[in-house]
């Protein structure tokens, strides 16, 4: 059977305390629907990818993703899959829980504290970046877990970039991380709208498209 398409980031592989994935466009699945229906169409493939990377038994926490700056704290172990209302990211010290974000041009920002240890996953598009959602996640990790910016590894996923989009919010996210004192910042540098063969793009496909799934969970 052909392996479903996904990618992983060397910077996150190197930390050795978590599993992660960023799914790509799944061939042969019609996703020309609204978001909810597109996600239903992709669910089986995304579950297969979770299994392939050893996260099949991790309950998945997802965010409502309202393009805001609120960060939820996942502070209980295990349990069933759950969606957190009114937030665009989460932080946790819990192990064997998958944090999940769906994107199709916005950036999924992975944050790993290698010392505490702790992790975060954040949905940051233009609006969320303007509101400082990633900055909030870093501050919440410090306030709740004692995380130090110098211990954080930040990874930006593929996302839309100029000239396909009028603002370079990926560059702004990097600036925000540096302003908080983060030293280890890694950017995929890939524009989703430039590669419709590999990624879903809300802008390029006029809203009728699928979503990539970003996942991260501590071992």
Write the layout of secondary structure elements.
Elements: E1 6-7, H1 10-15, E2 18-23, H2 35-52, E3 60-63, E4 72-74, E5 82-84, E6 89-92, E7 98-103, E8 107-113, E9 118-124, H3 126-131, H4 133-145, E10 152-156, H5 169-179, E11 184-187, E12 212-218
Parallel strand pairs: 3-5, 3-7, 4-6, 10-11
Antiparallel strand pairs: 1-2, 2-12, 6-9, 7-12, 8-9, 8-10
Give a count of the beta strands, DSSP E runs of length 2 or more.
12
- CATH fold type: CNF1/YfiH-like putative cysteine hydrolases
Give the biggest sheet. 6 strands, mixed
Q: Number of domains in the coordinates?
A: 1
The number of helical elements comes to 5
Arrangement of strands in the largest sheet: 1-2-12-7-3-5
| CATH architecture field | 4-Layer Sandwich
CATH-wise, what's the superfamily?
A: CNF1/YfiH-like putative cysteine hydrolases
How much helicity do the residues have? 10-25%
**How many whole angstroms does the radius of gyration measure?**
16 Å
């Amino acid at each position: 059977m052909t392996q479903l398409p996904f990618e992983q980031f060397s910077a996150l592989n190197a930390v050795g305390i978590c599993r992660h994935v960023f799914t790509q466009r799944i061939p042969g699945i019609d996703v020309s629907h609204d978001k909810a229906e597109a996600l239903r169409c992709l669910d089986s493939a995304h579950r297969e990818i979770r299994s392939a990377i050893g996260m099949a038994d991790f309950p998945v926490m997802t965010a409502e993703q309202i393009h805001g700056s609120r960060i939820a704290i996942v502070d209980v172990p295990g349990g069933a899959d759950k969606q957190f209302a009114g937030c665009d990211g989460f932080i946790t010290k819990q192990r064997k829980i998958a944090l999940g974000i769906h994107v199709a041009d916005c950036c999924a920002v992975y944050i790993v504290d290698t010392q505490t240890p702790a992790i975060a996953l954040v949905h940051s598009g233009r609006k969320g970046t303007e509101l400082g959602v990633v900055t909030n996640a870093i501050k919440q990790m410090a306030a709740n877990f004692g995380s130090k910016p110098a211990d954080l590894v930040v990874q930006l996923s593929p996302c839309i970039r100029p000239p396909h989009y009028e603002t370079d919010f990926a560059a702004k996210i990097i600036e925000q991380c540096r302003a908080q004192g983060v030293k280890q910042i890694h950017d995929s540098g890939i524009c989703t709208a430039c590669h419709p063969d590999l990624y879903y793009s809300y802008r390029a496909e006029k809203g009728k498209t699928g979503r990539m799934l970003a996942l991260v969970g501590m071992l």
